[in-house]
Each structure stands twice: as C-alpha cells, then as structure tokens.
Amino acid sequence: MIAGLRATTEGGADLVQLLSPEGERVSHPAFDIEVTPEELRGLYRDMVLVRRADREGNALQRQGQLGIWVPLLGQEAAQIGAGRAMRPNDMAFPSYREHGVAWCKGIQPTDILGIFRGTDHGSWDPIATRFHLYTIVIGNQCLNAAGYAMGQRFEGKVGDDDGEATIVFFGDGATSQGDVHEGMVWSAVYDAPLVFYCQNNQWAISEPVERQTRVPLYERARGYGFPGIRVDGNDVLACLAVTRWAMDECRHGNGPVLIEAFTYRMDAHTTSDDPTRYRLSDELEAWKLKDPIERVRVHLVKQQWADQEFFDQVQAEADELAAHLREFCVNMPDPHPERIFSRVYAEESPVVRRERDEFLDYLSGFADAHAGGER
Amino acid sequence: MIAGLRATTEGGADLVQLLSPEGERVSHPAFDIEVTPEELRGLYRDMVLVRRADREGNALQRQGQLGIWVPLLGQEAAQIGAGRAMRPNDMAFPSYREHGVAWCKGIQPTDILGIFRGTDHGSWDPIATRFHLYTIVIGNQCLNAAGYAMGQRFEGKVGDDDGEATIVFFGDGATSQGDVHEGMVWSAVYDAPLVFYCQNNQWAISEPVERQTRVPLYERARGYGFPGIRVDGNDVLACLAVTRWAMDECRHGNGPVLIEAFTYRMDAHTTSDDPTRYRLSDELEAWKLKDPIERVRVHLVKQQWADQEFFDQVQAEADELAAHLREFCVNMPDPHPERIFSRVYAEESPVVRRERDEFLDYLSGFADAHAGGER
Amino acid sequence: MAAPTMEKPRTNEGAKVQTVTMAKALNMGLRAAMEADPKVLVLGEDVGKLGGVFRVTDGLQKDFGEQRVLDTPLAESGIIGTAIGLAIRGFRPVCEIQFDGFVFPGFDQIVSQLAKLHFRSQGKVKMPVVVRIPFGGGIGAVEHHSESPESYFAHTAGLKVVACSNPIDAYWMMQQAIASDDPVIFFEPKRRYWEKAQLDPGITPDPLFSSRVLRQGGSATVACYGPSVKTCLDAATAAEEDGIDLEVIDLRTLSPLDLGPVFDSVRRTGRLVLVSEAPSESSVTAEVATRVQQECFYSLEAPVLRVTGFDTPYPPSKLEEDFLPDLDRVLHAVDRSLAY
Amino acid sequence: MAAPTMEKPRTNEGAKVQTVTMAKALNMGLRAAMEADPKVLVLGEDVGKLGGVFRVTDGLQKDFGEQRVLDTPLAESGIIGTAIGLAIRGFRPVCEIQFDGFVFPGFDQIVSQLAKLHFRSQGKVKMPVVVRIPFGGGIGAVEHHSESPESYFAHTAGLKVVACSNPIDAYWMMQQAIASDDPVIFFEPKRRYWEKAQLDPGITPDPLFSSRVLRQGGSATVACYGPSVKTCLDAATAAEEDGIDLEVIDLRTLSPLDLGPVFDSVRRTGRLVLVSEAPSESSVTAEVATRVQQECFYSLEAPVLRVTGFDTPYPPSKLEEDFLPDLDRVLHAVDRSLAY
Ligand SMILES: Cc1ncc(C[n+]2csc(CCOP(=O)(O)OP(=O)(O)O)c2C)c(N)n1
Ligand SMILES: Cc1ncc(C[n+]2csc(CCOP(=O)(O)OP(=O)(O)O)c2C)c(N)n1
Ligand SMILES: [Mg+2]
Ligand SMILES: [Mg+2]
C-alpha cells in the first residue's frame, strides 16, 4: 500500500457501539435503543440460525452439492441488525452475500441454494418479498435501488412515519465503482429514501480496504451532502439502532444516509478462494475476539435474559434447519433443457422460439441422454 | 429542483478571491501571491486574445465555416489562471472547452479549428505539447489523467520541487459520472500528482448545477481524503495562485487536489444551443458584473500598470489573431477520402486495407465528383 | 404474458390527420403514451426544460411535471440504472441517451441488468424500459455524435432493438415500445428528424416487431433500416430509370429480426443487398446475410452483399459523405449483385 | 509504423522444453514480456498477492514489485481508463478483467478511448494496451462468469481481438499482444486453463493475427476459436470413425479476421460449420459466414451453418452442458451440412 496505515480491527473514535465485544452494554448519545430480553433473544436466534445455514452451505459445497458458496461468517450482526430494522414495506437490494438479510425478509435458506447449485439465478419473488435478487456485478444494485427509492418518493410513500424506505447492500470494494457514486449522486439530488449499507468486511477478495480508499468509507457521504455513520458491524444492537434510525430518516423524507458497518469476513471470499495466500491468521484471531454472536450470548447470560434451555433450543433449531437444508439440496432436481429458453422475454421472441424448437427437436434424437430434468 | 437553494452568482464563504469584481486586490491568508505588473499584463493579454479567438470561432460557425463552436466566453480567467500555473513538463487533460488552456500550452487557435470544422478529431501532438486531445465523452479524461499521473509517479518524477504534475479539466455536470469518481479513487489510493480542475460554470447544457449535487462540488474531495478548494473562477490571480499551489502539492507528492473554479458560461453551451429556453437573462447580467477580463483591466489602470498604448496594442494583436484565424479557416482544405482509413491502427489491419482499396477503386470510377481533398 | 399492445395497439380514431416531422411524431407518441399511463416517465439529460437537444421531449415537462419528466444528473449508467429500479417499482421509464456515442457509460447496466432481469427472475420482474437513442451520421457533428451502435444491442440476448425510419412509424413504434413489457432499445435516425409525412392517428399500425416491404420489385432485394431507408428508396427510384426494379424492405426490428419478408423476397429476386451505416464486422447486416444464405441457399443467384459504414472509427464530418452509404454505393452494389 | 514483433517475434532459443498448463503458459508469457520491457505493467483486481483468481499472474508481483503489478481498486472503468493514461505516458499496461461478465463497466473506456485514440490522434498517441479476459463457460459458475463477449469487441473498429486455444499459443500470443502497438482484447478460454501441452520456447511462432489449420480434411471445414477448438478437434476424431474427414481451423484472431485459410479450405470442401459459445445474433460467426458466402459463393455446396450458444442469457450452470456447443452438436451440424 502506498498511502494509509492499516489498523484493521479498530473502527476509530466515531464507531457507534452499543454492545462491546465483552458483552457489556455501552451507551451512545445519539443511537441508543432499548431492547427487551425477548428482542435480544430473537436477534441471537437469527444470528445462530443464519450462521448454521451458512456453515451448511459451505459444507454442501465441499461435498460437491453446490458449485460455490459465498459465506457470511462474521457478518451476522451487520446483516441481522440491518434486516431487523426493516419494516415489511421497506425494500432491500442485496449483493450476493446477504443471506442474513434474506432471512429477515422471509426468504428461506433453501430458496438461495439454487443460485449456488446452478439450477436458477435466484428463485424468490423480489416484488412480493421486497428483497431483490442477488446482484453479482459489483455496484449495479446501488443504482437500481436509487431508482426504486425514487419511485417510492414519486408515489408519495415518503414523508411521515408510515413512509417506505429502501436499503442497498454492498461491500467495501464496491465503493470504488462508478455505479455506487452515481447511486449516491442520484439519491442526494432526488432526496431518495435510500440507506446505503456498506459492509466493510476489510477485504475485497484479496485486496484490503486501503486499496479502495485513503479515509474511512463513511466519510464518502459528506461529499454528497448526506450523513455517513460508521457502526460496529459486529454489534447487532448498534447495527439495528443505526439502521432503524437511518430508515426512519429516509421514510420521513430525510434520506439518503450512508452506513458503514465495520466488520470482518471471517471465512474465505467464496469457497473458491484461499485467503491464506493474502492475509495473516493473526488478523482473523483478533477478530474472533469480536465475534458478533458470542457477545450477545455473554450479554444474555450476564443479564440472565436467557438460560441453557434457550441456548439448547436454538441449537436444536439450527441443527434442524441445517438438516432440512441438506435434505432439500441433495434432492433438488436438475432443470429441464427447455429452461434455457424460458422467459427470456415477457413477449416471446421468435428467435428464441426457433432455437428452442430446433434444440428440443435435436435432443429428441437422443433416446435417453438428455431425458432428465424438470420442466 | 427537489433539494437545495439556487444562488448562482455567490460562491460562498470559502471562495478564494484575490481580485474583486471591482478590480481591488484582496488578500487571502493561504493563497496570496505576488504578481509583477508585467505578469498581470501578460495574463490580461492572454485573456483578451483567447476571448477574441473564441468570438471569432463563434462567428466562423455562424457564417457556416465551422460545423459547431464551443465557446469559452466567461471562463477565460479560470482557464488562463490554471494554464499559466503549469510548468512545461506538466501534463493537461482537457474536456472540449479548454481553448484557453490550450493557448497556454502553445496550441495555436488554428490547431483547434479542424475539430469544429470536421477535418480532424484534433490535430496537435498530445505527447509533444503535453496537452491531451479534447475528450468529448464526459468524464473519460479523468481516468486517463489519473493513469498518466500514476505514470509520472512510477517513473520517479514526483517528490521534489522539480517534480511533474498533471491537471484534468471537467465541468460541473461531469462530476456525476462514474469515471470522475473512479479517477478520484485511483488518484487518492495511488497518491497521483493530479489536480482535478472542475470549472463549475453553473450549467451542464440546460441543467443547473443543483441537478448534479446538493452541496458545493469542492466538498466532494473530503470523501476521498484530499483537499478541495473553491476558487473564484473569474479571478485570474486566484485561479493562478490556487492552481500553482495545487500543482506544487502534487509535484511534491502530496496529490491529488480538487479545485472547483466557480465561474459562469456566458454564452450558449455550443453554437447549437439556445440558452434562452432555460435560463433568465438576469443571471447573465449579474455575472457580467464579474467579468474576468474587465476586473484585470480596471486593476491595471488603477495601479497604473498599463497605459492606453498597451491596451491598444493588445487589441491590435487580438484583431490580427482573429484575422489570421479566419484566413486560416476558410482556406482549410477538405481531407481526402483516404483519410477515413488512415492510421486506424499502428499496424495496419487487412480489413481496413481491403475496405480502403475497394473504396478508392470505386471512387476512381467517378471522373471528378470525389477528386478533391488533401491526402 | 405478452404485452397486450403488440397485436391490438391503441388507435386514436377521430384524431385528425396532420403533417409532422419525425421529431414531432416521436413527441406525439411519447405524449400519447404518457397520457395513457401515469406510470410512464421520461428521463435523461436536458429532456425537461430544454425539451431535449433535438426537441423530441419538447413541452412534456411543462405538461406532465418534473416528476414525470426528469432532467437527470449527467451520467448514463445512472439514467439506465435508476430506470431499472423504477421499473422494478412498477414504472415504465423512457430513457433518452443524448447521442449514440454516449450510451456506452450505460452499457453495463443495459447488458448486465436490463437485459437479464426478466430471465433471471423468470418473469417475476418485468423490464418495460425504453432506451431512446438518436443514431447515425450525416449531421456534420463532432466525434461520438454520429455512431450506429445497434449491433451491440442486437447481439445482447434479453433486449429488443428497433429502428424507425419515418414519422408514421416513429409515432406508432414509440407507443408500442413503451407498451412492451420487454426492454426496447429504440433507435431514431437523427438526420431524418426533420423529414415530414402525413400522420393519420386513426389507422391501425403494423406490429412493432415486424419488417415491412416498402416497395415491390423483381430485380433484386434491398434491405435496410433507420436512416438508410430513404437512401435505398431514392436508389430504387434512380434504378428504375435503368430498368432495374428493386424491392426495398425496411427491417424495422433488429432484434428479434423479422426475416420472413426478406426470405420471401430473396426467393423471388435471388439477390440481396444490405445497407447500414454501422461498421460491418460482426454486425446486424452480417446476421441477416448469414440467415439469408442459410434459408435461401438454393434461391440465391449472387452472394448477399453489404453496403455499410467502414470498419474504422467514425471519421471527421467532412468525410462522412464518403463514409456513409449513399445512393451511388447502393446502386454500385446492386450492379455487382446483378453481375453474378 | 507496424509493431516490430509481429513478423519476427522474440524467440527464447536455449530455453528448455516443458509441459505446462495454459494458465502457466500465460504466466510465462507475461513474465517474459515483463522481463523484456520494464514499461510492461500488469493491473487488475487481485492480480498481485493472490496472483489472480486463476493464478495467471502468480508470482509476478513478488518478482516485479507493486509498481509493476498493481492490485487496483475494484472498478473496471478505472482499470481500463488508467491503463489508457499509463499508455499515453509510455507504459504498456496489461489489464486483467476478472471474468468476462465484468468487462462491461469498462466498456465505455474501451470503445470511446482505447479503440479511438490512435485514429483520433492519427498515430501520435499509441495504445499498446492488452485487456486479458478469461471467457466462456463450462466451469459451473454463477451468472456473469461464463460469457463470451468477443463479438462486442470484434464489432468495434480500432480494437484487435484474439483468442488462444492451447498453452503454446497462449505463451506466444500473450507476448505478441503485449508487443503490439495496438490495443488487443485477449480472450483466454477459462475452462482450458488447466489443459497441458509441451512448450518449446525455442521455436518461431506464427504471427499473432493469423488463423491456423489444425487438422486437414476434405469432407467439410469446421472453423472455431477459444474453448471450442478442443471440442471441434474431438468431433473431428469422432467423425473419422464414420469416414468423415473434417478440416479444423482455429481462427485465433477475431478482429481482424484472417479468413484466407478458411476461404481456401471451403473452396476445397464446399462446406463450413462455425462453432462458438457466444450467442449467434450479430456475432463473429455471422461475420465469418457472411464473408465466406461472399468469397466462396460458387464453391459452397451447403449454406454455412453455425453451432453456437443460444440467444438467451447464459443459463444456470446445471444447463450449460446443453447451452454450450458440444461434440454431438458439432457433428449434427456437419451431418446437416453434408446432407445438402
Ligand atoms: C464488476 C465486477 N467486477 C469484479 C467482480 C468479481 N468480484 C466478485 S466479489 C469481488 C470483491 C468484492 O468485494 P467487496 O465489495 O468488498 O464485497 P465482499 O465480497 O467483501 O462482500 C470481486 C472483485 C464482480 N463480481 N463484479
Ligand atoms: C457521456 C456523455 N454524455 C452526454 C454528453 C453530451 N453533453 C455534452 S456537454 C454536456 C454537458 C456538460 O456539462 P459540464 O460537465 O458542466 O461541462 P460544460 O459543458 O458546462 O463545460 C453534455 C450532456 C457527452 N458529451 N458525453
Ligand atoms: Mg469486502
Ligand atoms: Mg458546466
């Protein structure tokens, strides 16, 4: 790195934190919230289940059941905090790692498998669930989200406490893309009710965040004239509080807002990646001490808000979820070749129709080879 | 406009100014410079000549000698100030309106005509003159300039007072483009010796600057971690001082820097444009009081740094330049059809060769129609 | 579900016949679509107060307001990318790209999102987005203002691509494109903006994705689109004097191609000349030629020939008369075809 | 002035023969070019410490330092746009685009600047930039990682476009592309990265912009490039058993096309099948077909046929075996051609 100093594990003085890595409640002048024991148990459960599903996804890939898996390990608090800050009418635009946000929007982990098994490009209904399909081309979704949020505004759905808002997820690496910039320009100029939620997990594959910026990413917002906040992305309470505030700002018409959730990618970039080639295990060890789930568990115990039975039950639920996921995955049927030509357009194209007909005709010449697959 | 208030003619408290519209010297704590009478006369002469050439370009277009003209009227100080801040080894990347910067880099106004007459896409040598060809696709040049500046750094040409630097010109509208953002990201991360020189002339064709941003454009720099300065773009001394400082910062290795030259496009966007459709003449009248040349003239007179003879002589020079420009323009030969196929590649392509041979052969069938044109 | 409009477009019976330029016809088409559906938005650079640099959106912001006709920030990825988001929200955005050469900063959003979202979501997300692009040369402009980028889009699965060639088509095709639930890249031949025709809003137009025989003839077939259509019709008129009887087909839709009429014609004439301003390599004309030699193999009496812009960057405008296919070059190719 | 290297490439006489994968051969080619010229830089995402997601740049940063092998910020327009600036400054940048589908954010800089600066400046500015793109399907990847975007570039005047198909070509073509003073879009068939061949650095390679007959035969000609070359060679082997003798041509250069060997071959065989993973509409295979029907009109005994990816977005990977041209589909097309 030519410029800048690397101090990955420290978020700096501006970091909003409500629950320390040691499980202590910290107060914050601007973003404090009250949580009930039940709420906190719910957040804990979310994180444990999401992590379990994530680990199962990883295992399924290792066993050849998935082509690739994109782990969220370490980012559970950032995602569950943000996800639980959303209201049903709020819209989310994920990148490709937001299995935790998906969970909060009611997308089943099984719905996500198809992308990574290669049977579909995303199977859920983004309109009905208000959770857009995963976007793989880095940064694209920031503009799509800006447009959607502009639409919320144009429809008069913004301006009071019943307003709607949108949240878009992207990584630290993504901040370099022109589309993310343009998304910020548009949102600022059109007062779009959009929360830019950057999970700074310190790495863009092998590149540390210093390859993308000299200064903390939340400061980017200043240049556009809207607030930027850095939150402890491993603190589910802080993520919840800050995102809830930001979404509320937006639904009241005071958007956009940038949130930088300062977190860490504890696993590889994807199952195809080998992080030992570019980062030291020390770093991972330091971050393990800030584990997003552990601090909640400690706090629940300290406060006597949860007993062993609760933890056991969550564990059992997690195991069940994982078993279900595995069961579902190994039984997923291969798609039928006709699927190649399916719904390319709303109004079918004669070109696609010709190619489909010719190809199916060609296939019918083979007695059995291509018999399988679901239509 | 949904957000923001428009106060076009006011640059705000942070505006760096050294010469008021009334021709009074103003001192500035950070950017003051000493100029000799001779220097100031030189700047005056530059601006008068450049304006005269610009007006002649406009007239030539009106008379059908040029296809289009892009006037710089009103931006003489912004361009001459920046242009005269450059050293011979410094590189400049213009957009399409920088006839004044071109002048400072030794490009003759006649060299520019071909682009607007349609005989070439830029006739000067960007390597020898260190003035890149005009870039028409908004924003592209910011990345090209960042790369060039990185190259200066990689070659070890940065780090002391003999260092080199690069300056890139773009408009207020351009700031919305992804490429401008990426140029800032790259320059910041690689400490590129690059001055981003935004001429905020208040308009991007028909769109006021509020369509691009909520906050002053110079604040954009903060988000990338380098300085942003707003200078009175109609004050040639302030532009010179701030740009000289910024270039020096860069050549010493402290780049990049963003300068927003707060100015006004006093004419149409191009000769094809009709600004009466979108802006009030009041605005123009207000800006006329801030004319970049007039204030220097007043100052020269007040200080008794120039007499009538000087002004007459500059006027005569200007008229001569205009006459030469006109003479040159009307005598420009049309290019030969072979030029279509000329130097598409460094190593000729057989496809282009075939098409050229076939076409010239085809043309030779016409006795005279296509005889003209210079090879 | 197919867009309802393709088969039975809305007709404006009772509206009166008038002489209009293509720019005006496009404006009227936009206006009709905006009146018919409050979800239709227009976005682009200078489309509002100025009415677009070609005045195609003239008066729309005044009548429909700033929330339906948006002067956007200056960035094409932003225009396309937000239009996609608006479409996800249920709007039907019509984007204007100011000139052909400026579509490229928005190319990624077009190829990666606009073209793919319907397929990706298997129809759960519709993309009724129109991208209007004034295209082609002949107006004496500087670089990047005279290009013919249609092949990039025709090559992109998931997009539909059309080009109008006259005011009447312009009026109808614009409304049909906006009514389509698929993304349509809509090419407008800018040097034909000021040509006039009698527009009868009472008729029933042809479907959007269809080509059309404009002139019947038996000597050879000439297929073209956009700005070249007038050139080819003029060439046909000139050829008539030499006893050559050209059939002229306006392709109108470049993706999907509607080649039925071309095949029929070539089966009769045995000869085909394709005309386009775009560079030839890996282009739409190459696709048409390939399909025709395949489908009309036994009918062709000469190879399919092309008259196109050259495979060079667009030249300085003093050379564009040479660069662009003109009447002489078309006739020269016809002669070559007939000589086989 | 032509780049000197095309005719007389630098040979490494004395270097020893070894068995290498294509990924390794590319790595060796890059290394040789970097050793030969200190102005050669490598830039891209993850090309440094990681050595690229396919390890093609493995070890280069370690040996040449961070100023010659740059892990760039994550933005493709930035990678191409700064490479252009570096080229103006006199460097010879080699950009890596991580996967085919991610070249589009950089498309504008490629089309508007990289392709046009030489022509714009009439040679005063050279653009010796190589853009490496791992392309094609068959690796079971998620969306955007299996595309074949070569036609977009072949259609763009001012660019040169090549595709290697085997380790030996990979080694030489990479060096030749870097030595070229023109911008070269360099396609690497990613599913062939791990295939091996014996590399003899002592030989004199073919020129970069040339196609090559890989297998002679008289029944029909099959022309292909990149990942399809192996498929076609396998098909030829299979066809042999049925007494069908296929001539297989590796096009290698997609722009400019080097069709002399194809014309020669078709004049002998009378039949041509083109194979490519890219969608067919307005593509490179369309261009080849069009040129061949024009140049070999009287020799063709069957229309030129194409076996390509379909005109649909790339499907979920469980379907890619069906999407991609395979041995059976190639032979099926050969049969259809022979049936004419
Ligand atoms: C336009 C584009 N370029 C490159 C890639 C390949 N790629 C996938 S993820 C990734 C790194 C992203 O880093 P970041 O934005 O920090 O998100 P994270 O993966 O860390 O969540 C890259 C380079 C891509 N998907 N899209
Ligand atoms: C990518 C791109 N989009 C659109 C245009 C058309 N266009 C030319 S100049 C201009 C406005 C530029 O405004 P600004 O950046 O403020 O510069 P100014 O012309 O005011 O100097 C537009 C939209 C273009 N040249 N390039
Ligand atoms: Mg990251
Ligand atoms: Mg401006």
Describe this structure in words.
Chains C, D: This is Pyruvate dehydrogenase E1 component subunit beta. Chains C, D: One of its GO terms (molecular function) is oxidoreductase activity. The complex is a heterotetramer, with two copies of chain A (375 residues) and two copies of chain C (340 residues). With 375 residues, chain A is α/β, with parallel strands linked by helices. Chain A has helices at residues 37-62, 76-84, 99-104, 109-117, 126-129, 140-154, 178-189, 236-251, 281-288, 292-302, 308-330, 350-364, and strands spanning 91-93, 166-171, 194-200, 203-204, 207-208, 228-232, 257-262. In chain A, the strands form two sheets. A five-stranded parallel β-sheet of chain A has the order 1-2-3-7-6, with helices on both faces. Chain A has a two-stranded antiparallel ribbon with strand order 4-5. The model of chain A is unreliable at 1-6 (pLDDT under 50). Chain C has two domains: 18-199, Rossmann fold (3-Layer(aba) Sandwich); 212-339, Rossmann fold. Chain C contains twelve helices and 14 strands. The longest helix of chain C has 15 residues, at 22-36. The N and C termini of chain C lie far apart (47 Å). The chains are: A alpha/beta (375), C alpha/beta (340). The interface between B and C is large, with 48 and 40 residues.
